[in-house]
């Protein structure tokens, strides 16, 4: 979640174990992130794709 904060996402709300992030600047994307210790690799790749990033771009943010 910290890597997504670097590109302009902030916590909008949370219900149970799902956090909704909102992108402050355009294109104002919304992402639903599970609040778990481990996230399945398919779920992680889907989150990366929805954020408009590639895997390499995410790694650079970390």
UniProtKB/TrEMBL annotation:
It comes from the Bacteria. InterPro entries: HicA_mRNA_interferase, HicA_sf. Keywords: Endonuclease, Hydrolase, Nuclease, RNA-binding, Stress response, Toxin-antitoxin system. It holds the Pfam family HicA_toxin. One of its GO terms (molecular function) is mRNA binding. Gene3D superfamilies: Hypothetical protein (3.30.920.30). Belongs to the HicA mRNA interferase family. This is YcfA family protein. It comes from Sulfuriferula multivorans.
């Amino acid at each position: 979640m910290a890597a997504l904060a670097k590109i302009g996402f902030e916590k909008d709300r949370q219900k149970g174990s799902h956090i909704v992030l909102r992108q402050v600047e355009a294109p104002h994307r919304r992402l639903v992130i599970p609040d778990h210790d481990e996230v399945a690799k398919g779920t992680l790749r889907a989150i990366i794709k929805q954020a408009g990033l590639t895997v390499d771009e995410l790694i650079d943010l970390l």
